[in-house]
Design brief:
The chain is mainly alpha-helical and about 220 residues long. Helices cover about 85% and strands about 0% of the residues.
């Protein structure tokens, strides 16, 4: 639950910081305000298109693959955005950030019953949404303080930090989940083996009792 909380915390910090500070960063890089606003709209459009596409990909691919694909796409966008590239490349990187963010949130929600079981899914989703809201509230203003003291050009670096922490939390969450599932599977196998042994023992005892009754009848 704690890892799941942190996962949603850093994801929302990443997505909301991208949407809130994207326009300011673009204007600081030299874009006109109306062009910056248009690029922000393109970012939201890329999120919408990415979620529609990821819905079709979800038919053939697992939640884990979609999550990692989205995270690595965002990481690639942050990396390219940090490089001294021509100005016209930055809108492409911004759209890449939107496409990368698209499958992560719904796939994390959809994977909740597989991680925690159906009985705990409602509690787990409540904790995940709490992490999401807290990350949305705290981290964008925190970067605002950093930008006011230093420069808004640190925005790609802050996104890279959020992506790295998100990837770390997802990897740890998957490790813990697989470990618990393996323990559960091993426990079920032990129970099955014990049940099989007890059934075989019961059958053997019944055969012995039947044999003894037959001998007594013959006498």
């Amino acid at each position: 639950m704690k890892l799941s909380f942190l996962t949603f915390f850093f994801y929302s910090a990443l997505e909301i910081s991208t949407s809130l500070w994207c326009g300011t960063y673009l204007i600081a890089c030299g874009f006109k305000p109306e062009i910056g606003a248009f690029i922000v709209s393109l970012m939201f459009a890329s999120v919408m298109v990415g979620r529609i596409i990821s819905g079709f990909f979800a038919i053939k691919f697992t939640d884990h693959r979609l999550i990692y694909a989205g995270i690595f796409t965002v990481a690639a966008g942050c990396l390219v955005l940090s490089l001294p590239l021509p100005l016209w490349m930055q809108p492409v990187c911004i759209c890449l950030l939107g496409l990368g963010c698209a499958p992560v949130y719904p796939s994390l929600i959809h994977a909740t019953p597989a991680r925690f079981g159906e009985s705990l899914s409602s509690q787990a989703i409540s904790i995940q949404l709490a992490g999401s809201y807290i990350g949305s509230i705290l981290m964008p203003p925190a970067f605002g303080l950093v930008a006011a003291k230093f420069t808004v050009h640190l925005w790609p670096i802050s996104l890279s930090i959020f992506v790295g922490l998100l990837l770390l939390c997802v990897c740890l969450l998957d490790y813990v989940t697989h470990k618990k599932l393996n323990k559960s599977y091993a426990r079920e196998r032990v129970i099955d083996i014990l049940h099989t042994v007890s059934m075989e023992t019961l059958k053997r005892e019944r055969r012995i009792q039947r044999h003894l009754r037959n001998r007594q009848k013959k006498r």
